[in-house]
Amino acid sequence: MPDSPIGIFDSGVGGLTVLKALRELLPGENLIYFGDTARVPYGTKSHRTIIRYSLQNTKLLHRFRVKMVVVACNTSSAHALEILKEEFPFPVVGVVEPGAREAVRTSKSGKIGVIGTEATVKSGAYRKAIVSLDPFCQVYQKACPLFVPLIEEGWLNDEITRKVAERYLGELLEKGIDTLVLGCTHYPLIKNVLSQVCRGVKLVDSANAVAKEVERLLPARNRSRRGSVRILVSDKTERFERIANMIMEEEIEIEEVEIDKE
Ligand code: DGL
Predict the structure, then answer these.
(1) What would the CATH number be for the domain defined by 6-94+208-256?
(2) Measured in angstroms, how far is the CA atom of residue 41 from the centroid of ligand 1?
(3) Does the Cβ of 57 fall within 6 Å of ligand 1?
(4) Which pLDDT tens digit goes with each residue over 12-61?
(5) What beta strand segments (E) does the chain contain?
(6) Is the pTM of this model over 0.85?
């Protein structure tokens, strides 16, 4: 059981920010990542489709005898987490709850901005999670649908990405937020641009918060050796490989797998 891998999934490259955080915090663990690159983005899909994809992805990881699954996708966490917890015999951890906790801990004014995909913002999952932790917090949300394609394109430090960020974030900054939750696991990849646009605002990246949550939940830990990492995708492309190598800062072979669509 301690040698069983921790499974992690996202729609594409975004969840690699969570994989990286887990690798750093728990270097002895075997990790297996699945990026559903054939069906990215999830953020524009319906509630029903996001649930179906999330169930299929978790089933795929189950085949690898994982001991836990981390839903490294805010969109899936916001729409499918409860169903995944009911359906599978291992713990399933989402990114929304840890991110919300970190935001409440970080904010001094209680004015918290949340950016995410359309589906995450529409679900209101962050607002609910933040307000249940502190009912005095004011939560301002903004969907930023252009960020995911810009990031998947690799435009991480680009002038166009900065302009898009200015346009999206203007109204949140006008509200006087002091904390901004990056409510999509893709967004930490444009942290540089976001911190230039949001000077003086603390950015909450749920990747680190979720890694700490996983550490807390693990009954036993492998400390004596370096764990293995596997990266699986539903569509293997050069672009994914390039971005994955850049994020992970180590060469990891990318394997293409077939999703069982039942
Ligand atoms: N990275 C994902 C998230 O955290 C989803 C991006 C997408 O597929 O739209 O929401």
Answers:
(1) 3.40.50.1860
(2) 6
(3) no
(4) 999 999 999 999 999 999 999 999 999 999 999 999 999 999 999 999 99
(5) 6-10, 31-35, 68-71, 92-93, 111-116, 138-143, 179-182, 202-205, 229-233, 254-256
(6) yes
